[in-house]
Amino acid sequence: VGMFEHVGPAHYRTFFAKCRELLTPEGVMLLHTIGRAGGPGVTDAFTAKYIFPGGYIPALSEILRGHEELRFFLTDVEVLRLHYGHTLQHWYDRAMAARQQIVALYDERFFAMWTYYLAGSLVSFENGGLVNYQLQYSRSRTALPITRDYMAVEEARLRG
Length: 160
What we know:
Blueprint: H1 12-22, E1 28-36, H2 45-51, H3 60-67, E2 73-80, H4 83-97, H5 99-105, H6 108-126, E3 130-138, H7 149-159
Antiparallel strand pairs: 1-3, 2-3
Helix pairs in contact: 1-3, 4-6, 5-6
């Protein structure tokens, strides 16, 4: 569930402290969030007012500061640069195809704002302004193997 964008930088330390507390000693957590490709910024006025009031898209530097000094170990970082753009394109296409049903459920104004948001977000992912971060954390430095090979092995096992 994408919720980290709604935590806010002022609460990152509390968020990470609670996550660490909830993990078993050998527990592992994956944080998946939309992020800024550059440094800290501000949420655009349209998104803040109409789409995600109170939401904030963090820079990687802001996320990393949130867990410093907690003995909560960052064990892996992956930056999904282009992937979410494809997702947004599919959502936009599906929204356009279902326009009549969406307008019937909500109204024309909602449809216009939602598709404007999807199109704007798509452009932000395509031009490099936004990315998805996947950050893996553990309470223990030794909870995971020292290479990423275990990920490929587990993926192959799951694929059968």
